[in-house]
TrEMBL record:
It holds the Pfam family PilZ. The keyword Glycosyltransferase applies. It catalyses: [(1->4)-beta-D-glucosyl](n) + UDP-alpha-D-glucose = [(1->4)-beta-D-glucosyl](n+1) + UDP + H(+). The keyword Metal-binding does not apply. This is Cellulose synthase catalytic subunit [UDP-forming]. GO terms for molecular function: cellulose synthase (UDP-forming) activity; cyclic-di-GMP binding. Its cofactor is Mg(2+).
Amino acid sequence: MTPSPSPTGRPAAPATASGSTASGSTASGLTGLASRLLESPLWDHAVVRILTLLMATALVLLVITVPLTLTQQLLFAAASFAVAMLLSKTEGRLPTLIMIVLSVSASMRYMYWRVTDTLGFETLVDTFFGFGLLAAEMYALIVLLLGYFQTAWPLQRKPIAMSTPPEEWPEVDVFIPTYNEPLDVVKQTVFTAMGLDWPTEKLKVYVLDDGRRPEFRAFCEDVGIGYVTRDNNRHAKAGNINEALKVTSAEYVAIFDCDHVPTRSFMQICMGWFLKDPKLAMLQTPHFFFSPDPFEKNLDTFRHIPNEGELFYGLVQDGNDLWNATFFCGSCALIRRKPLEEVGGIAIETVTEDAHTALKLNRLGYNTAYLAIPQAAGLATESLSGHIGQRIRWARGMAQICRLDNPLFGPGLKLGQRLCYLNAMLHFFYGLPRLIFLTAPLAYLIFGAHVFESSALMIAVYAMPHLMHASVTNSRMQGRFRHSFWNEVYESVLAWYILRPVLVAFINPKLGKFNVTAKGGVIDEAYFDWTIARPYIILMLANLIGFVVGIGMLIFGTNDEAITVMINLFWTVYNVGITSAAIAVASETRQVRASPRVAANLRAGLRFTNGKTLSCETEDFSQTGLGLRIPADVDVPIGQQVLVSIFRNNDEGVFPATVAFRNGEHLGVRFHELNTQQQVELAQLTFARADNWASGWGQGDRDTPLTALRGVMRVGVRGFGMFFKHLYSMAKTPRSARKAAQPKLDTGD
């Protein structure tokens, strides 16, 4: 899987290490020897490569298929896992690849045993539940294998500096599409886009207003940028951008969602690769959010546990880049106009127009690229219902692509590209498998179905290595951007809601509509979203019933199946924890600020009406105010008018403000009637700073599976308590009031 340099300018994978601290000179020496063998000129000969591949394939098939007794399988599994744990403490990419091989071997061995030794079902009930679970396991295995292929060797592309003088740099149009978002949200993106570090005469900013609002037109005229609208809303965001392509002409187009504020460095960070690679059509940067999503807000995990999207932008896209299969994500991207026009503009056939556009570009032989450096930041969805609605659209769109333009078929794609796109599509089909896993032990505990025609001990010695290898290998690979077990909470929350739209879109891709994700709102009062939580509550209660039945089987049943009952009870307890954690997500906390604060330590100063000044620094900032840290003994009365200075190198911005609160060393000020020029300057000194978002990217605590499991179970206990608390509260609330408080879920139907 080692990549080689490409004549089109795609870089070879760097030799940077990944993993944890080395555990000893012996392991490091073996790794060094293996690295030297991999670099041997012998591999330049096709015969050597083919023979090695045939031998490796034969060896893997032998490992997968050789029959072993219970004791032999236990010893084999223990030895393999011991090697994996030793490698997990060793630096370098080669140990990661070996861990992947061990994990794939354990998983394939389990599945081979599962298919050949456990399907002798005796009743219709056994057959129904048994083949249902097998289908879910097959899906999970395919996704696991594709995930390893996709992310085993992330490319880690670096920026290329601009080598030509600014007068030779190309022209760029910046598109900011909007539909129903508040002007205050759009303003920040406009102000920072106007300050992109690019020659002014070569940069044009356009607001693409599908809401056709007079105040937006007036704002654009006031700040001197372009305003594009149309007399219809056909094809939603894709149609909006395509209309703007007709009336603009720059060689490159940068696209930002209206709540994504770019940093000053965006253009210079991204453009170098286009000048190096004439076949490069699109370069994507991460979507970074400076506000918490509903999971982070309701579970209080913001900046502690990686959120749902960080794995995709932190690792998956970097892995896609190796295979020239980077997805366009609709925002924070730079696109060459000519290839985009060759494919007919932004794709309109599906509601995931962005990924479909990248697929079309790759089919024509163009390159796509990814830089894992946050160069913009935006607002996450505020409510769980809005978040689920957004994911439903993504899932529906990928199912549409699967039907209308399946990457496995058709011209123009290489095998690596096809597999990366396939994995992206298959991911959103997890709804049914996830629900099967959350109810599988109930088949035995409640219905008496034997979904495995094998002894409990044989199940354990085959299934546990598969699960444990997958856990430690994924933890090593994904540990900076996803913590173990949390993805099961994310998927459990969404599974019920994406199941029907995905299946419907797969059967009839023309059904459904584009639903806009609302941003920039507030949640005035905390509430429990009973409508959203209903599936999780049913699943939790069903597993609780299964647990009680299982305890009864242990107490009053025979000893013949005690181990089988215990295995199912452990599985049930785990499912209760996961579904209870999902219930906790449905408990919406208040969000009283429409303009979220961003934590940052910036050099600042206060100037008082008596002429005195005070040097200080910010604790956080927003477009409406600042949090400052000042000496506790300095008297600054609430309501006092001040001038606040914010510094960036030798630049200083001065803004009128009013003291809003004081608590010891903490001082809060609210800006007072900033004019347009001051708002632009404020955005440049705060949101547009290049170091705002990149400094903390992927720098959180690495994953430890057992620690992550404890964290998920703690959230599950909390969700369990929340359910009964809100149940008691609901009993005292009139039905009409409860109904009025629940948000409507927009599924796009």
